[in-house]
Amino acid sequence: MSETNNAAGVEAAVAPHRYTAVMAADIEARWQDFWDADGTYEAPNPTGDLAGDPQVAARPKKFIMDMFPYPSGAGLHVGHPLGYIATDVFARFQRMTGHNVLHTLGFDAFGLPAEQYAVQTGTHPRTSTEANMENMKAQLRRLGLGHDKRRSFATIDPEYYKWTQWIFLQIFNSWYDDDLKKARPIADLVQQFETGERAVDGGRSWTELSATERADVLSEYRLAYASDAPVNWAPGLGTVLANEEVTADGRSERGNFPVFKAKLRQWNMRITAYADRLLDDLDGLDWPEAIKLQQRNWIGRSEGARVDFPIGDDAITVFTTRPDTLFGATYMVLAPEHELVEKIVPAAWPEGTRQVWTGGQATPAEAVAAYRKQAAAKSDVERQAEAKDKTGVFTGAYATNPVNGEQVPVFIADYVLMGYGTGAIMAVPAGDQRDFEFARAFELPIRCIVEPTDGRGTDTDTWENAFGSYEAKIIASSNDQISLDGMGVVEAKARITEWLERTGKGAGTVNFRLRDWLFSRQRYWGEPFPIVYDEDGIAHPLPESMLPLELPEVDDYTPRTFDPDDADTEPETPLSRNQEWVNVTLDLGDGPKKYRRETNTMPNWAGSCWYELRYLDPHNSEKLVDPAIEQYWMGPREGQPTGGVDLYVGGAEHAVLHLLYARFWSKVLFDLGHISSAEPFHKLFNQGMIQAYVYRDARGIAVPAAEVEERDGAYYYEGEKVSRLLGKMGKSLKNAVTPDEICAEYGADTLRLYEMAMGPLDVSRPWDTRAVVGQFRLLQRLWRNIVDEASGEVTVVDTAEADIDEAMLRALHKAIDGVRGDLEGMRFNTAIAKVTELNNHLTKVGGPLPRSVAERLVLLVAPLAPHVAEELWRKLGHTGSVVHVDFPVADPQYVVDEAVTCVVQIKGKVKARLEVSPSISDEELEKVALADEKVIAALDGAGIRKVIVRAPKLVNIVPA
Predict the structure, then answer these.
(1) CATH number of 302-512
(2) Is the dihedral of CA 711, 714, 715, 718 positive or negative?
(3) What's the Cα-to-Cα distance from 334 to each of 100, 179, 421, 637, 703, rounded to whole Å?
(4) Which residues face 640 on adjacent strands?
(5) Which residues contact 696 (CB under 8 A, 6 or more apart)?
(6) At what angle do helices 158-172 and 657-671 cross, to 10 degrees?
(7) Chain-centre distance of CA 55, in angstroms?
């Protein structure tokens, strides 16, 4: 036997009941089994199949949520559970303070990773995803998380995505009424067209329109609609990519293939209709200001004017926040993808076209085609880069500036994007640096229309850059109907906007940076759209009775790939290969007819847009959610005017997309009367990240962190020196530590305590395996304060409260007061520090603890280390679980210090320190200070001009 094993054997013989990793594993497994069998964490609904004791349901409620986890095949590392442990601690504390707590966890299981794995291995995505979920469930269970498992689900469950499809149909069958500022059923809009209350564009009546024309009209209003939309098309992958999947170099993150801009028929969500409400309702949410700011910036509300520049029989519409500079517009730029480009391009170059405008091409059509191809190969980030050279090409067309009648050339250039504004700009090169650089490159005129205040003068030939100012006066801006000369910007904007509206050449308007949400993916592993097309291509919603529309089996999950450099291709979706599923005969209420199913699938965002509602009523097959249940858990109440989840915890990386999409879906469902909460998440908390050191060799390759040695301040791997940098934790960086490892070595309670004690929850912090033992020792001391390590018996004594040492009572009640406040404020690190301080105090006192002190100590620990708390609670003679026992309440008389130290200063120098009551008044404190012997001696008979008192801690005496 080795010396180590021999020492461990001797220790076990001397202290067989010491808290060890082996004991922790036994305790934790037993209590996890008990919680499952007992239904300890089941939260009753006020009604429905999860309804429980009405007295329990009548307690104040608390709905606590984590952001949806994706079941990765790599499993969890210790960074993943940080938020889950935090919400568990908070939920446990809320239960112990009298709340009916709903806390559960499901899985966001659709998405690209499982499909990629299926492509590589041929394994069905459901098979790998379900295996990943089982592994993750086991890892999370080992942490002792108090989830109501009856409420858990995965987005890939057909009974779940039935309702995802149902919500899509509610959105499809709705339109936004700008007068009422809310969504309404599309049937109401049809009725307005039928009665003539609302006119059809073009002057024809509704009855005169064909079925296809009616469908096209309604598509302009529907909140879910199909259109030809610009997308990121990667031929080498055979799929369309989200912006997040494209690198700054305009290539795919996966495979590094070129990505092109292409127009494809796609489903969209008209989230822009809700832009104002999405902005306004942020004010009522308890969210971090940084997240609110990101959403405001993403929505990007700006006031300005819409201006029409006539061109042939059409007009180029621009939005500008500076209509006062219209007289300075000397050319126009369209995004290369703009729909008017092909219509306005003439057959030949106009006479006098400059060579620099043509791109070296013989005709405008050739120039435009060549430039479009060039622009399509660039990412939006590349196109917007400030430092890049400005490129573009003349379309061969001229538009008319509405304020002065000038003919201005129309270019296409990649620095203008279809995703912003109208995809067209009026270029005022004197006031905008990008326009200035473009004008210089293409020898275009630059007209000064804002009087420079920096001494440069109005001769733009001498300028080195643009000059823009909101403080300067407008100059050289007049026609025979209006003059802006001499006006300030605010006055000039109002004047020109009024003139544009009066003359029918534009209008004041509000613009948003927010674009409609592209909702289609050319993939297999996603929710099928509940839409079919008839022989005329008209989209028809499936009736609710045909939901869920389940994913069919396909032989090949691989998208069809093409020449990576061939942008002139279109994706072939995996679903389109199952022709028996695609082409069907259905009776949608007017007899059997042939239809073609939609072969795109929904994005992985879809399932996470409403999952909070499914947690409420997870087994309801008749409706989305029971109204009484939704009202109870999420309805508006005092301090929460728009309702929502009481606490939502997750990473800040979801600040915009997920949170914005979920808010949009909630508002539509609210408008249509399906839910009472207009917002999904009332309070949002962003946890920080657990980081880890990454070690790299001379080649820059990550090496196993666990095998790196530190010597004399340097780091070595297999004898070679390596660099160290703090970064993310992950399998690819070879620095991942699994929770299983820590649980095996110390126990889950130790891991929970360590992660919560590392620092404030919202701050990122470095992982240090060597420091975990500190929390393990805390639990060992806690155990030793209550249990005899030799016999396993509790050592507490029954002592009346009045007979307990006052110093012990003060330490106890101060800890209770501090821990209670810290847990409520999610300051878990300081709560643990206070528990540690109390436990150390009790250890130093020595001797058996009074039972009432030991019990309250265990209750303080219970939310943080639930397994050991349950075991100690049972050993202390209680038969039930500690989970629903009332959290201790501090006695105020022991929280306030008996005495505080008051400093007495004379001429700013400390002359005495007095021990006084913390409740002493200013008047009393002044008398005590002036009567003190040291103060009298220091004054030495001098008179007193002034006494400044700040009870109970300061007296400042100013001698005469």
Answers:
(1) 3.90.740.10
(2) negative
(3) 57, 32, 11, 49, 50
(4) 637
(5) 702, 703, 722, 723, 725
(6) 70
(7) 36
Classified as helix, coil or strand, 426 is strand
The pLDDT value recorded for residue 1 is 38
Q: Rounded to whole angstroms, how far apart are CA atoms 457 and 905?
A: 64
**Residue ranges of the chain with per-residue pLDDT less than 50:** 1-5, 7-8
Residue 697 in 3-state DSSP? coil
First to last CA, the chain: 83
| CA angle, 716 then 718 then 719, to 5° | 60
528, 599 Cβ separation under 8 angstroms: no
- Total residue length of the chain: 960
Q: How far apart are CA 247 and CA 258, in angstroms?
A: 10
Sign of the alpha-carbon dihedral angle for 589, 592, 593, 596: positive
φ, ψ of residue 239 in degrees (nearest 5): -145, 160
- Give the integer Cα–Cα distance in Å for 45 and 58: 10
Best CA proximity match to 396, nearest among 424, 429, 357, 427: 357
Q: DSSP secondary-structure letter at 282?
A: G
DSSP β-bridge partners for residue 411: 333, 394
| Alpha-carbon distances of 372 from 347, 379, 380, 680, 752, rounded to whole Å | 17, 13, 14, 42, 56
Residues 308, 402 contacting (CB under 8 angstroms): yes
- Say whether 341 sits in a helix, a strand or coil: helix
> Do the Cβ atoms of 111 and 242 come closer than 8 Å?
no
Cβ pair 105, 66 in contact under 8 A: yes
Token look-up 């530590």 returns 737
Tally DSSP H helices, then E strands, for the chain.
30, 31
Strand partners, 327: none
* Neighbour tally for 880: CB within 10 Å: 12
Enter the DSSP assignment of 53: -
302-512 shares its CATH topology with 899-959: no
- Confidence (pTM): 0.87
- In order, the DSSP letters of 617-632 are STT-SSSSS-HHHHHH
The rounded distance, in Å, linking the Cα atoms of 665 and 605 is: 11
**CATH number listed for the domain at residues 899-959:** 3.10.20.590
Instruction: Quote the DSSP letter at residue 552.
Output: P
Instruction: Please report the DSSP string for 568-611 in residue order.
Output: S-----GGGG-HHHHEEEEESSSSEEEEEE---B--TTGGGGSH
The Cβ-side half-sphere exposure at 463, using a 13 Å CA radius, reads: 25
Place of tokens 């659709």: 110
What pLDDT is attached to residue 244?
64
**pLDDT attached to residue 13:** 65
Q: How far apart are CA 154 and CA 618, in angstroms?
A: 11
Contacts of 220 (CB under 8 A, 6+ apart): none
Give the DSSP H or E segment for 856. helix 851-861
Pairing of β 407-412 and β 331-334 = parallel
Alpha-carbon 791 to chain mean position: 52
Task: Name, in order, each residue with C-beta under 8 angstroms of 270's C-beta and a sequence gap of 6 or more.
Answer: 176, 222, 223, 224, 225, 516
Q: Which one, of 505, 338, 507, lies nearest residue 420 by Cα?
A: 338
Strand ranges (E), 202-259 = 224-234, 239-241
From edge to edge, which strands make up the β-sheet containing 424-427? 393-400, 407-412, 331-334, 424-427
Structure tokens at 845: 């006192």
Query: Cα-flanking dihedrals φ and ψ of residue 735, to 5°?
Result: -130, 15
The residue extents of the domains of the chain are: 302-512, 772-896, 899-959
Helices marked H in 672-800: 739-745, 748-757, 773-786
661 contact partners, CB below 8 Å, separation of at least 6: 269, 271, 517, 605, 608, 609
- 309 phi, psi to nearest 5 deg: -105, 105
Architecture of the domain spanning 772-896: Orthogonal Bundle (1.10)
DSSP state of 723: E
Q: Are 823 and 90 spatial neighbours (Cβ–Cβ below 8 Å)? A: yes
pLDDT at position 387: 56
